[in-house]
Amino acid sequence: MAFVLPGGAVGAPAGFGVPFRQAWADWSYLAAGDYLAGPEGVALIAAIEPPKPMLVVMTNAVVDMVRPAAPMMAGLNGYGAITRSTETVLLRGFPASLLSGGMGDRTRAGLPDDTKVPGFVAILPVIPEVTPQVADILLDAQGRRYVVTAVETLNAVWRFSLVQAVS
Fold first, then answer.
1. N or C: which end of the chain has fewer CB within 10 A?
2. Which of 36, 38, 39, 8 is nearest to 22 (CA)?
3. What are 94-132's pLDDT values in tens digits?
4. DSSP 3-state assignment of 86?
5. Cis-peptide into 95, omega within 30 deg
6. Which of 45, 65, 64 is CA-nearest to residue 54?
7. What is the dihedral of CA 137, 138, 140, 142, to 10 degrees?
């Protein structure tokens, strides 16, 4: 397996926030959506288009994806906000690329001195049994929570736009 920067450059290291690489390998036993693990880390195969090199995404996080649940009873409920006890786990323990970027958001109060919550972008493999939705939540290994604001499917990967949840 050999990794090079997009465009084939090998004369300089990858820049910060650039998770994409071209990979040369025997792809006869590989498929888009597979992971490759080795000394350089864990890479997600995003696309295989022979005879071109594979497009891979270097991962830097392990994430879970959960879906918040609505109140269980019609009418009056004790507490209606999102709680961890009512979340449904959609994915657990998937290596992902999780980088700052994308669109942030102001806190809901909208006051002039409110801090803008940061935007993030995550890339994960498409899992056919799961249909991600806006408002799903990604959790990283440090316990940070990111709310999905958009999701798109690109070949065998999902690209999520996220905002970091404010505690």
1. C
2. 8
3. 999 999 886 666 555 556 656 677 889 999 999 999 999
4. helix
5. no
6. 45
7. -10
